Amino acid sequence: MSSDKIDIRYVAxxxxxxxxxxxxxxxxxxxxxxxxxxxxxxxxxxAAVPATAQVVESRNVERADDVGPCLDRETVLAQxxxxxxxxxxxxxxxxxxx
Amino acid sequence: xxxxxxxxxxARRVNSGSVGAREVTDAVLAHVDAVDxxxxxxLTVLHDLAREQADRVDRRVKNGETLPxxxxxxxxxxxxxxxxxxxxxxxxxxxxxIAPYTGTAVQRIIDAGGIPIGKTNLDEFAMxxxxxxxxxxTTRNPYDDMRVPGGSSGGSAAAAAAYExxxxxxxxxxxxxxxxxxxxxxxxxxxxxxxxxxxGLIAFASSLDQIGPLTRTVEDAALAYDVxxxxxxxxSTSIDREVEPAAGALRDDLKGVxxxxxxEFVTExxxxxxxxxxxxxxxxxEALGAELVxxxxxxxxxxxxxxxxxxxxECSSNLARFDxxxxxxxxxxxxxxxxxxxxxxxxxxxxxxxxxxxxxxxxSSGYYDAYYVKAQKARTLIGDDFKxxxxxxxxxxxxxxxxPAFQFDSKSDPYSxxxxxxxxxxxxxxxxxxxxxxxxxxxxxDGDRPMPMGLQLxxxxxxxxxxxxxxxxxxxxxQHARAGAKVGA
Amino acid sequence: xxxxxxxRTKYEAVIGIECHVELKTKSKMFCACPNEFGGEPNTKVxxxxxxxxxxxxxxxxxxxxxxxxxxxAFGAEIPTFSKFDRKNYFYPDMPKDYQIxxxxxxxxxxxxxxxxxxxxxxxxxxxxRIHLEEDTGKSTHAGSGDGRIAGSSxxxxxxxxxxxxxxxxxxxxxxxxxxxxxxxxDALKRTFVRLGVSDVKMEEGSLRCDANVSIRxxxxxxxxxxxxxxxxxxxxxxxxxxESEIARQIEVVESGGxxxxxxxxxxxxAGTTHSMRSKEQxxxxxxxxxxxxxxxxxxxxxxxxxxxxxxxLPLRRFERYHDEFGxxxxxxxxLIDNASLADYFDAVVGASNHPQQSxxxxxxxxxxxxxxxxxxxxxxxxxxxxxxxxxxxVETATINSKIAKSLLERMxxxxxxxxxxxxxxxxxxxxDSGAIEKFVDEVLSDNAKAVADYKAGKxxxxxxLTGLVMKQSRGKANPALVQELLKQRLG
Lengths: 98, 489, 491
Known about the structure:
The complex is a heterotrimer. By secondary structure, chain B is an alpha/beta fold.
């Protein structure tokens, strides 16, 4: 287990959360405290233990390739914070991230 | 006709034609209008929708149909989609979002004749144990309005306890049905992970979230479970296994049932009064014919640490979609990145932000193995503990929460709030069916009025019928819920 | 570019290609919305592909089978266990702000793409993996005047494409030139189209690729610093972009500079690549197994069954046409790229047992007729059996090639089998020397001047005389025999 101090600004950037300086301070402390509790897991010997992603074993749940109904466009766009015609509108995109 | 009776009783009467669903619904709505101002169970009351549905149920009954939940008033936690209704998750980010579709569990309740009375308050995105993390309202405990109803399904708990519904629908990720049920003297039942479809349940932690009922009787919990459980093609993780009906299989004794008492769960730590209460509860189980056996869950103590890595990690990804692009709140910015950051900073409350941050951290490059994978491995060990324990017993009994309902603003440190779910989290991590059933009252440290407590019973995967059957025997023998809340009496 | 051929040959390019190919299915990857190109914006969306709160993904079984088919076609390993992971990053046209993809356990691993170049030489490029993921919506950038993201004031988003199944094919850096890159891409395209797993329409964006390009001195085995080239929207632009990037890197190195690792955009108009804004932060995609989806397990028997159901692949066809039948690479490619024509061709060869004549007719007169009439060959009245019959008539010298040509036109119009026409109209070529001698004598006696010219050394007059005899016989005389008899007579 690592007990590095959490780089809260970097994490907030990844999570796309704007934080005030006061929040950086308070969240940093709270998350640091929580990580202290979490460090307890270090005591468990898990070297030979498989990871559990899902508790109920299940495989190959798929659907047939059939087409079903779509939502009505007006219903969809009525919820848009900003729309332009039939499109969702967003402010300018700066970085290419895909 | 009083709506203060059980769901089973209401359905019986509506099906027999002795009372109309509309009549029940009007009475419940009038009661809600009268009392909910002081309780705050509902964020939205669905007067029109409820009446339309009641009329539909009356027509179906008149046409000869028998519906398992005919005319039963149901409170829906506001993290479940119901088409045309505001569905907020108790968050500013979804404050005005109208769901354009209905989730599977809610749809099954409606198809079975249940009446959606309204959408209930919750800790924001179901993250919390008191309902205090809701951005949209305060919910009070019907047993003491100075105290919290528990959480995160606190609104549904308060609604059921205050007779504002016969069934409260909740969701349980680490204890969010069982803890509020304990605080509000209800039966709170979390089925096996995957038993009830999550389609339409706004995700907190996908590998843990499970819908279940909060009710005033075990029979009602079984009734609601029977209606909602079963494979759903819209949820890949819903279990494809036949559902044995539970409502008709309730028992009156515990003969031949081995009940495990977890030796690591030392109730002395909870104070003499609470310790005595649980010793009495275990003795009552024994008196009903159960054999009490000691079991060990050596890694259960790691449950909290495990949970507070896995659940936030999943939540950090699940809540990414609240970005101000397609729906919900948007706070503008000079570019799309700024818009995201401003929207999410304004839209999410502190607890949600904390969990997003810790989860993002646990998944981030360089920490993934140390935190996330480590927690997933600990999860395996916790599950293995239960498998070993259940080799020697049929059910496990324990406290549902560490204390009775506490006063508002009394838990300022996040970790002390997390500790409320100490007993429920291990079962969640293992995906087990578990419930809380009323087991008596204790005087809280900070008050004189006795408050209800809950006994948690847990069963192996898929053994819901065994679990509900035993809870019914205990309930019938002890009748702890009988006193009821005094709201609007 | 100011790089001389001389300098250029000192360097070798090392190229790897990442290709995103939309799968051909009726519905999207994780929901039942139609997987169709175009349409009114935001009409092919539902709670799942719009990432409405509470919605959940359920994978499309056909898309998973397509992946297995694609992998098997290139000899990839199909692991028995595979799973979906979430790739977390924010982008406005990605509804969930994470993409369901595959991180460490893709549906196919390894494999080799064998491809041919225009001159018929074979080459190969190893595949790293092909994994399954979902497409994003489409952003239109406004306010910059040219539709580009740089300088735009806002963007408009259509989510119709969001959730369309996408396979990402990642190659090893085995490609050494722009020609090879296009050969490799052609092979992917042909194979996917043949398998029916994708339409591969670049103009509809159903195949998009990025190229990682670096250079190194010839003979070196180390890799140079690579640049990732984006925005190439046709195979032609892939070719041009790679050429241009190789030249740019050589120029940088030759002038004493260093190539920097970066993403570069291809500018189709300028014909150059340009540095794209460097990212503000390193990517940290926080991959983790998607808890909303369960793993995929493929047993050997299922994979084997899919393998036996695969159609004959373009590579095998090429080997057959080029190596066995002796077709030129161009002819073989022409057939392979028109699968129904190739199927027709195979039927003709099967019935006639004469690949060369089959090629001549199918790629020659029949393709011409198809072009002129707009009816594909396989839909014309000329059945492969009829064509084989025609070939047999030619091969047995029952008719000559001129008659064959006119017969084919009549067959195309639906006049029936060539043999029937030949029989009913006595079109069979005559090799009866008595009859032909009679025509020859008539022609020679009518054309004394030509005979004199021939004897005076103008031997090329023979063709003219042959034509006259053929005309006299109404085209039925065997032209070879006519010439032979003419020569005899003319001494």
